[in-house]
Design goal:
- InterPro entries: PIN-like_dom_sf (IPR029060), PIN_dom (IPR002716).
- Pfam families: PIN.
- This protein has 166 residues and is of the alpha/beta class.
- It has one domain: 5'-nuclease (Rossmann fold, 3-Layer(aba) Sandwich), CATH 3.40.50.
- It is globular, with a radius of gyration of 17 Å.
């Protein structure tokens, strides 16, 4: 059995049943179905995304974000950090995304585009790529509502994704 890495959007749905009633109910049901030995993880990247929300929002929104952090802490998830092998996997994934983006940019070489790729061209956000690398290197199922199509394309069968809101 695989353990689970819960992405930022899933934590938000789980936290706020009034804002996301359908998603919350589905996530709660799925969690209740898990065997007791199943581990639930949160990426340090996700912690960072929530911390950004605390600092960028209005006082009211920051209060809600602080409650969100307390909610997560109360669930006592396993905190998934970044190690050297995670960085290596990230590099492989980003390199494959870059190669695929080059194929779409006919007539240019890799040297023409060194560090010039935007995340729009790669079709993925950097944080999503790091979280996918964490899931792959620890053999976790990534639970997200994000499509991650380009990451799925380059990760192949190494990346296992579930959407608990569908």
């Amino acid at each position: 059995m695989r353990d689970f890495l819960i992405d930022t959007n899933m934590w938000a749905y789980w936290f706020d049943p009034q804002k996301y009633p359908q998603q919350h109910a589905k996530i709660k049901k799925r969690l209740e179905e898990l065997p007791p030995e199943a581990k639930i993880g949160i990426s340090v990247i996700t912690w960072g995304e929530i911390a950004v929300g605390l600092r960028e929002n209005t006082k009211q929104e920051s209060y809600i974000q602080a409650e969100h952090l307390q909610f997560i802490k109360a669930k006592k998830p396993w905190v998934v950090d970044i190690r050297t092998y995670t960085a290596e996997e990230y590099g492989k994934l980003r390199g494959r995304l870059r190669t695929n983006a080059l194929k779409r940019k006919k007539g240019l070489s890799a040297d023409d585009l060194v560090d010039r790729f935007t995340w729009l061209e790669l079709g993925s956000l950097e944080n999503d790529l790091w979280i996918a690398a964490q899931a792959i290197t620890r053999n976790l199922t990534l639970v997200t509502n994000d499509k991650l199509n380009r990451i799925r394309e380059v990760a192949g069968d190494d990346l296992h994704i579930e959407n608990w809101t569908t």
